[in-house]
Amino acid sequence: MRKILIGTVLTLCSYGICLAQRQADIVVKFDNDIQNILVDEYSGNVLIKDSKAISSYNPDKNALNWKITEDELVKKTNKDKLQKADNALKTVERGDFLSFLDKKANLIELIPGSPYLTLTLNNSDIIIDIITGELLYNSRELGYRLLSSEYMPDEHALLLTVIDDKNYSCVYYDLKNKQEKWISALSPTESFFSSLKGLLSVFGTSDQTRDMVKTTDKDIFVTISGALFRINKENGDIAWKSEDKITEFLVNNANTHLIGIRKSGNILRSRVSLNLMNISDGSKVWKDDVTTKYVSYIEDSGDKVLVAHESGFNFYNYSDGKKIWKKDAKGNKIKQVIPIDGDYLYIADKEMNLIDKDGQNKWKKFVEICDKDEDLVYHLNKIDNNRVFYLSDSYGNMVDYTTGKKVWKKDVKFNRDRPLLFKFDKAKNIYIAYNDKKIYRFDPNGKDEKKNESFARLKDVKSDDTMADIELFDWGISLVGEEDVIGVDFDGNVKYHNTYKDPGAKKRNWAMAGRIAASVGGEFAMQLGTANLMSSAFSGGSTTGAAASIYGGAFASELANSGYAERMTQRVNAMQANADYAFVLNKGKEGTEIVKIRKEDGEEVDKVSVEGTAPIFKVDGYNYNLYFVHKKELRVFSKK
Q: How high is the pLDDT of residue 102?
């Protein structure tokens, strides 16, 4: 499969005023070699992990906010609890788990939707409040090893899955009172790892067996190694455990039923079974499962549920699981369903169609949007001027929403072996797409034509197969690859084209090498056509404000009047703007260097000398600080 990065990608950035390779503005020295660093995008603090400590560095004050050392953990050790934690490991004689702990050893992991991090320090699992540096959880003190952590924002609590002596258990950790509220044993470790081994044979990788957690007013629903549990939120009592292995589940809007999804088979051939379950006792409602190769969409309608899967697309009654429509929506291999104003736009195999709420076709025929069955669809939705816009590995075009007629008789045909980058220009209300050294404009208000021709052709691109970043400005488009930084105006004229020599390009994965990081306030990759990606329109809530949208729940309320919340809001709002600078690694005259290029005009505004072809460094997309690791030093290159 070809390499794709779509939308705005955070181009690594710092700021300087001279082109000579310069020394760091600040050097922060540590006692041990630094293993990993992470920039907290919401506070701007840098988290630094070495072999014996974890620290938080505040670049505004040029000081450490807090530091937790291995010695401090030892001082807080409860010998009996430590022995219990060690015994937990001794009960696990399976290499998979020990390998799992080894891989976690150097990682700094933020718990999603929370201001907390987890890491392992000298065989101690710890959880830290990244704002205050408070140590919330220490396996040396509590006596069990941590496997996973989930933040429950409405409860302002953590749900931890742990190995507790000989049991695989669930822990409710109350963050307000900073104490364990309850621990509930779910299964013996031996049966847990036997179950895990079975799941791995189905999925192929452990990444796809991540526990799922959903909460209601009274209950916690969680999947643990393939079993779905209903747990009383107040005391940890287990109401029931599913008889079947459940790999995914959804809670309906009324909190009366669950959709339970399970997989069977092996890596080469797998099947999915789906059924409605009573929340009260976990029993199945339907006599027969819906069995298929994959499920692509589920929608709750109160008394019926819409299920789209490989071979069908229909509503099923809550009561008996019978289909509502006389016939399934036409088409094979239903990959994606998008609800639009009571209608359903969907992808079947290589085509799309539109049906109404009664399952009746609104278009006379299907519209082909892909060349091959395995093609990904990166954009598909209704846009302005009553049109549907689609971009896939193969084609790009628009169709009339009412008739299904294509705006351009011939699709724009893409080279699926080259990156496809696209971006929506809000100011001009147009979509811009780049592929195979060509740039296209998709205008919702454009006139019907035979073909949408490219308005720019860039013959001199040095490394087209690594192009990974597209950004729009009032003057035109910027493009960034491993060895190219290009500016093109909206008339197709090349404004600038800088080329570089990557010191270790083909030895690394472009997306993972630290060259181009995740987006700051931009669009992330949207791969709508993946058959194994299930979307749903089941229960869910929404919050507003920077703190609420990032953290949510009680913690967001605590932040409302704090200086941290103000700083976070300022940063989040600022990072919605365009990434104005590109950073590339270059093989310079004096060795490896990081070059900063201003996208506005292509001017090189800074160069930083680094060691090696794959240096450890992070960039703050708000203030353009660059943090580079050299052995025991954190070198800070800041905006002047």
A: 61
Residue 462 binned pLDDT confidence (cut-offs 50, 70, 90): very high
- Whether the CB-CB separation of 340 and 492 falls below 8 Å is answered with no
Return phi, psi of residue 539, to 5°: -65, 150
Range in 255-269, 448-462, 571-585 the model is least confident about: 571-585
Lowest mean pLDDT across 15-29, 85-99, 401-415, 540-554: 540-554
The C-alpha angle 28, 112, 548, rounded to 5 degrees, equals 100
Q: What is the pTM of this model?
A: 0.79
- From first CA to last CA, the distance across the chain in angstroms is 43
- Tokens describing residue 426: 């809000």
Q: How far apart are CA 196 and CA 609, in angstroms?
A: 46
Please report the sign of the dihedral spanned by the C-alpha atoms of residue 194, residue 199, residue 201, residue 202.
Answer: positive
Whole-angstrom distance, CA of residue 176 vs CA of residue 85:
25
pLDDT of residue 236: 96
Strand order of the β-sheet with 456-457 is 420-425, 430-435, 438-442, 456-457
Buried b (16+ CB within 10 A) or exposed e, 372-394: eeebbbbbbebbeeebbbbbbbb
CB 128 within 8 A of CB 117: yes
Check residue 223 and give its pLDDT: 85
**In angstroms, how far is CA 633 from the centroid of its own chain?**
30
CA angle 381/382/385 to nearest 5° reads 150
List the structure tokens of 489. Answer: 């105006």
**pLDDT tier for residue 526 given thresholds of 50, 70 and 90:** very low
* Average pLDDT of the segment spanning 376-394: 94
> What's residue 88's pLDDT?
59
CB 321 within 8 A of CB 303: no
Do the beta carbons of residue 189 and residue 168 sit within 8 Å?
Answer: yes
Phi, psi of 67 (to 5 degrees): -150, 135
CA distance 470 to 126: 39
- In angstroms, the CA 41 to CA 579 distance is 14
For the chain, percent of residues with pLDDT exceeding 90? 43
| Residues 262, 243: Cα–Cα separation, whole Å | 11
Helix (H, G, I), strand (E, B) or coil at 574: helix
| Residue whose pair of structure tokens reads 């000398």 in the numeric block | 609
Residues 6 or more apart whose Cβ sits within 8 Å of residue 621: 10, 13, 41, 520, 521, 575, 579
- Beta strand 535-537 with 295-300 is parallel
Token code pair at residue 114: 């929370």
R_g of the chain, CA atoms, integer Å: 26
Beta strand residue intervals within 469-625, DSSP E:
469-472, 476-480, 484-489, 494-499, 535-537, 581-588, 591-598, 604-609, 617-619
Cα separation of 539 and 410, whole Å?
41
The answer to which of 10-14, 53-57, 397-401, 584-588 has the lowest mean pLDDT is: 10-14
What is the rounded distance in angstroms from the CA atom of residue 263 to the CA atom of residue 274?
A: 9
| Mean pLDDT, rounded, for 330-338 | 86
Residue 34 tokens read as 């630094």
Residue 111, phi then psi, degrees to nearest 5: -75, 120
